[in-house]
Design a protein that fits this description.
This protein has eleven helices and eight strands. By secondary structure, the chain is α/β, with parallel strands linked by helices.
């Protein structure tokens, strides 16, 4: 019996592979701030935003730049920043490793002809390189990384793009990730959500976001997906 789902969309870092553990985020963040300044952004504005952390500054600076300079200029600035960030992420690609149970879970899904995608805040280039380096790129029909075309998590833009390519209704998809932002993203569009927390993940935030299932590793993903069948009370395919 196959699980009653039409597609599974994974987060990348911390879920499929451990990439972030090999990225110098502190140095990357400082270089991101420098890139904004090199692109002509006001130092006072950058200093205000930088106190909120790396991922917040990306959204805040784009919004402020769009208001001050227009969306086209804001997009050009953001693309320069993303190139800077991608360089640091790509440095970690050669050192990253698959998370426990990753290959077994992907094989199980492929054997059941369930389409898979990746939705990540990592750069699109770094994500594709990491998947190729780990020998698992061929499992995925779509990879949507951090670009100026889509708002990043917890906004559902990237996830909806995955579903569009996979030709799957969001309510028929499953989101698997290691953060509450993955859960929020999935629940926003009506997907079933499965969390695989890492040591830095906030289980409480995941529960507050309405996560449907929490597992200890991807080795537990197959039985978790099989449990969706009785939950949905729908006939198997």
């Amino acid at each position: 019996m196959n699980p009653d789902v039409d597609a599974v969309v994974f987060d990348l870092d911390g879920t499929l592979i451990n990439l972030g553990g090999f990225v110098d985020w502190e140095r990357a963040q400082e270089d991101v701030f420098k890139t904004y300044l090199d692109q002509g952004c006001e130092e006072g504005t950058v200093d205000v935003c930088r106190a909120k952390g790396l991922w917040s500054i990306l959204e805040d600076m784009y919004r402020l730049n769009a208001g001050d300079h227009g969306e086209r200029k804001a997009t050009d600035i953001q693309e320069a920043v993303y190139r800077t960030l991608s360089g640091y992420e790509e440095e970690g690609v050669q050192l990253c490793a698959k998370m426990p149970g990753c290959l077994e879970a992907l094989e199980w899904l492929r054997d059941r002809c369930i389409p898979m995608g990746v939705c990540t805040r990592n750069s699109h280039t770094a994500a594709e390189k990491a998947l190729r380096e780990q020998g698992i790129a061929h499992y995925f029909e779509v990879v949507v990384g951090c670009t100026t075309r889509h708002r990043t998590k917890p906004h559902p833009d990237q996830l909806l793009e995955c579903y569009r390519v996979l030709k799957v209704e969001p309510s028929r998809g499953v989101v698997v990730g290691d953060s509450h932002q993955d859960v929020i993203m999935g629940k926003t569009v009506g997907s079933y959500t499965i969390a695989v927390p890492m040591y830095f993940s906030s289980l409480e935030k995941m529960k507050d976001a309405g996560v449907d299932r929490v597992i200890d590793s991807l080795a537990e993903l197959p039985p978790a997906l099989m449990d969706i069948y009785p939950i949905n009370d729908a006939p198997s395919k």
